[in-house]
Amino acid sequence: APRKKIALIGAGMIGGTLAHLAAKKELGDIVLFDIAEGMPQGKALDISQCGPVEGFDAKITGTNDYADIGGADVIIVTAGVPRKPGMSRDDLLGINLKVMKAVGEGIKAHAPDAFVICITNPLDAMVWALREFSGLPANKVVGMAGVLDSARFATFLADEFKVSVRDVNAFVLGGHGDTMVPVTSYTTISGIPVDDLVKMGRSSREAIDAIVKRTRGGGGEIVALLKTGSAYYAPATSAIAMAEAYLGDQKRILPCAVKVDGKYGLDGLYVGVPVVIGAGGAEEVIEIALDDEQKANLDVSVNEVKGLLEACKQIEPSLA
Ligand code: APR
Q1: Residue 1: band (very low, low, confident or very high) from pLDDT cuts 50, 70, 90
Q2: What angle do the packed helices 13-24 and 233-247 form, to 10 degrees?
Q3: N or C: which end of the chain has fewer CB within 10 A?
């Protein structure tokens, strides 16, 4: 079979990291697109020159022309601006909404058959807007947030329980904001629910609550330390896992921002839920049973996303 084609819209910190990871894993040939002139071309050359050392075969090119994403199998979108210290993801809405319009139109014109993964923040609103602007079917446009949020949760839990991160299966629902819902009853260590481990005395409710809080603010913690931008290694790694699930028809159940229609009492909103990712894109949303507290927490998160969508419609009446 011919090589797959991966187009990365936005060649900044996450975009460059994505290109390097995708090349190392030989997911396909890579096109780095950006509006900045020269920068995607320069990064493409630099990353290409890792090939002889690392031993990968992937053609990596940089471009400022949407025509070059033509025929892409997977598109990962990081175009836009990242946070600076003191900003919330929502502060990016106005600027990044305009970027999603340009990107959505570029995808619609040149790569309407691609599986599109959006990373640009505020995530749940931007992936919804990107779907609207691109006109692609909802199963082909997803947002990356839950894989990253659950990876952050898992990292902190592995530390707390002094176990390998490999044995932690962390579960996060809801929007990619400070109201996200880490679900401890579905979070396990080698199959043992964290709530049971607390009952067994291996940690305390207070320690787990503090970890939940740290997970919710996990992006902001990194922004405050970096000062010049936001996280990029783990966000890129998380999106690559989603791309691999699609390309390999893996049927992985991953927490992703997808359009939820009917399940969880939602009607067409993009929010983070467990979803089967395979060759059909977002193939099936898995609806889990939630207790009253979890439901109430999810409601808070969903209402925050709804507020962002209203703000998008105010700025861009064509979305209403
Ligand atoms: N089309 C294409 N690229 C664009 C556009 C546009 N209309 N507008 C901006 N860009 C490019 C910038 O030139 C820059 O190279 O998007 C890139 C963004 O890269 P960084 O500023 O390094 O940001 P990054 O850390 O990669 O984060 C990107 O992902 O996690 C989110 O909140 C984060 O929204 C941010 C996005």
Answers
A1: confident
A2: 50
A3: N
**Structure confidence at residue 218 (pLDDT):** 97
The CA dihedral of 128, 134, 140, 145, to the nearest 10 degrees, is -40
Residue carrying the six token digits 């892409």 = 72
pLDDT in tens, 197-234: 999 999 999 999 999 999 999 999 999 999 999 999 99
81 CA distance to ligand 1 centroid (A)?
A: 5
Q: Is the CB of 99 under 6 A from ligand 1?
A: yes
Decide if 110 is catalytic.
Answer: no
106 ligand 1 Cβ < 6 A: no
Cα angle 249-290-299, degrees, rounded to a multiple of 5: 95
What's the chain look like in SS3? CCCCEEEEECCCHHHHHHHHHHHHCCCCEEEEECCCCCHHHHHHHHHHCCHHHHCCCCCEEEECCHHHHCCCCEEEECCCCCCCCCCCHHHHHHHHHHHHHHHHHHHHHHCCCCEEEECCCCHHHHHHHHHHHHCCCHHHEEECCHHHHHHHHHHHHHHHHCCCHHHEECCEEECCCCCCEECHHHCEECCEEHHHHHHCCCCCHHHHHHHHHHHHCHHHHHHHHHCCCCCCHHHHHHHHHHHHHHHCCCCEEEEEEEEEECHHHCEEEEEEEEEEEECCEEEEECCCCCCHHHHHHHHHHHHHHHHHHHHHHHHCHHHC
The residue whose two tokens read 């995607």 is 40
Cα of 169 vs centre of ligand 1, distance in Å, is: 30
What ipTM was estimated for this complex? 0.99
Q: Is the CB of 82 under 6 A from ligand 1?
A: yes
Residue with tokens 């991160």: 165
Q: Is the pTM of this model over 0.90?
A: yes
Question: Other CB atoms closer than 10 Å to residue 193's CB: what's the count?
Answer: 16
